[in-house]
């Protein structure tokens, strides 16, 4: 397999997994903010969201990191400012995902888990900034 073909497939997997990861974090942000933990359906809904998080969102995040770092190494972009900014934003999204996982775990145990109401806006803004940095590579 040539370098160009390998790079193209790595980029395709990275973009697809990033899409699933960001979509999952976005939906969880909205669900956790909108769903009051004391509603009657909350227990079963929380269990379904935890399973979806474990089976889909977490693996997508890990694939995004693995293939993103692989692309950065292949492209010789390590040390570029735009990549450092992008990685910082991906760390932020990964941290939000960790906080969401914790909130789901607490709610499944019947405990209160507050979620910052601006999380959906932060996720959307970080995602747009990541896209801009990845496409334009401005600095």
From TrEMBL:
Keywords: Cell membrane, Heme, Iron, Membrane, Metal-binding, Oxidoreductase, Transmembrane, Transmembrane helix. It is found in: Cell membrane. InterPro entries: HemJ-like (IPR005265). It holds the Pfam family UPF0093. The chain crosses the membrane at residues 12-34, 55-73, 79-97, 118-136. Binds 1 heme b (iron(II)-protoporphyrin IX) group per subunit. It comes from the Bacteria. It catalyses: protoporphyrinogen IX + 3 A = protoporphyrin IX + 3 AH2. One of its GO terms (molecular function) is metal ion binding. Pathway: Porphyrin-containing compound metabolism; protoporphyrin-IX biosynthesis; protoporphyrin-IX from protoporphyrinogen-IX: step 1/1. The keyword Calcium does not apply. Its EC number is 1.3.99.-. It is an enzyme of class 1 (oxidoreductase). It is a multi-pass membrane protein. GO terms for cellular component: plasma membrane. GO terms for biological process: protoporphyrinogen IX biosynthetic process. Its cofactor is heme b. The keyword Mitochondrion does not apply. Belongs to the HemJ family. Catalyzes the oxidation of protoporphyrinogen IX to protoporphyrin IX. This is Protoporphyrinogen IX oxidase. It comes from Bordetella flabilis.
């Amino acid at each position: 397999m040539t370098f160009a073909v390998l790079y193209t497939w790595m980029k395709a997997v990275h973009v697809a997994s990033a899409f699933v990861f960001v979509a999952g974090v976005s939906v969880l942000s909205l669900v956790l903010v909108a769903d009051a933990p004391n509603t009657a359906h909350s227990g079963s809904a929380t269990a379904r969201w935890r399973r979806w998080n474990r089976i889909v969102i977490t693996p997508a995040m890990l694939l995004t990191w693995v293939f993103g770092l692989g692309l950065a190494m292949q492209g010789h972009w390590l040390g570029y400012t735009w990549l450092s900014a992008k990685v910082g934003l991906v760390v932020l999204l990964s941290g939000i995902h960790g906080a969401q996982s914790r909130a789901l775990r607490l709610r499944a145990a019947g405990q209160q888990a507050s979620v910052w109401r601006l999380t959906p806006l932060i996720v959307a803004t970080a995602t747009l900034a990541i896209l801009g940095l990845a496409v334009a590579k401005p600095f």
